[in-house]
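User: quick one, sequence for these tokens?
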């Protein structure tokens, strides 16, 4: 495995009987969820911020990973935290939000879930077929861009390319997630950036309509996709902490 990127280290914090699991996004690293994790730890939560397989190093490390690896890692982290805590909340950004939803569908005992610009809606079949065709022609990655952050003083550490095999796996995972959304009964805090250039804000609308539990919504007017590091980062952390306190106090 290649050397970790700065800020890509997994992180844990010992705290009280309530736990919080924080999950980062596709091609990202724990750095993107660091402000939320630190705020939850400061509020007294026992926190786990894992690094998902293939992330936080190089695209070559990610090429061989997929949805099964990331969901397994999220499940293991949740089970470990739940064994040590009386109640657990789960928070995720982008694909981390998708993984959060999958956990909530399988674990109705989760006290509350926080989804920040979550990827929810499955891609049209023609998009998936197009990416599969590129793979079949021998392409394994596409040039990416800078992390989608409005604040020019903040630089994310997501990969500069998008690995196509993992992207197909992620798309297939979102497709498989659709029937699970209605099973989610845990309270949901849903934070959405209207100016997200990675995940359409309409994904949040679809999620709010699909879940069976109560939904609170927060609009992040000043931030792009990686809102946890953007102009609204303090707002995101404050809302996450308040929601986590409320749902674990019941």
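Assistant:
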């Amino acid at each position: 495995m290649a050397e970790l990127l700065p800020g890509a280290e997994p992180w844990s914090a010992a705290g009280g009987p309530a736990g919080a699991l924080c999950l980062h996004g596709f091609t990202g690293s724990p750095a993107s969820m660091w402000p939320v994790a630190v705020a939850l730890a400061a509020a007294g939560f026992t926190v786990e911020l894992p690094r998902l397989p293939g992330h936080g190093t190089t695209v070559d490390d990610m090429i061989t990973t997929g949805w099964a690896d990331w969901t397994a890692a999220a499940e293991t982290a949740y089970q470990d935290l739940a064994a040590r805590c009386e109640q657990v909340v789960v928070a995720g950004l982008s694909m981390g939000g998708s993984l959060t939803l999958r956990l909530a569908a399988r674990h109705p005992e989760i006290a509350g879930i926080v989804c920040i610009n979550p990827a929810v809606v499955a891609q049209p079949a023609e998009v998936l077929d197009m990416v599969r065709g590129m793979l079949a022609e021998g392409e394994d990655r596409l040039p990416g861009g800078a992390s989608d952050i409005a604040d020019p003083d903040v630089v994310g550490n997501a990969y500069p390319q998008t690995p196509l095999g993992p992207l197909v796996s992620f798309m297939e995972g979102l497709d498989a997630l659709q029937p699970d959304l209605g099973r989610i009964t845990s309270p949901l805090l849903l934070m959405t950036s209207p100016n997200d250039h990675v995940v359409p804000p309409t994904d949040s609308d679809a999620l709010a309509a699909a879940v069976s539990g109560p939904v609170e919504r927060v609009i992040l007017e000043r931030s792009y996709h990686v809102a946890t590091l953007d102009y609204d980062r303090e707002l995101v952390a404050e809302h996450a902490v308040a929601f986590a306190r409320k749902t674990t106090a019941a």
